[in-house]
Design brief:
Elements: H1 2-9, E1 13-17, E2 20-25, H2 27-30, H3 33-40, E3 44-48, E4 55-59, H4 61-67
């Protein structure tokens, strides 16, 4: 939900991991599937919200837990 709100209201975003800026730019430039996986270590799908056309996110935490052997 927070990433969707950032995509909706922010003109510029900074992605930070371990205290370092790993990406900056518009939400469309920064909020990619690869970056979300890198920064948050979670699988997601990114799509255009059908109401406003902005980025929206569907997270798949169960798939990530299975990948790590946690059921």
């Amino acid at each position: 939900m927070t990433l969707s709100l950032a995509a909706l209201y922010c003109d510029v975003l900074y992605a930070v991991k371990n205290g370092e800026i790993v990406a900056s730019g518009t939400p469309e430039q920064v909020l990619t599937k690869a970056l979300v996986q890198h920064v948050y270590d979670i699988d997601c799908e990114i799509y255009a919200n059908p109401v406003n056309g902005r980025l929206a996110f569907a997270f798949n935490p169960i798939r990530d837990r299975c990948r790590e052997g946690i059921k």
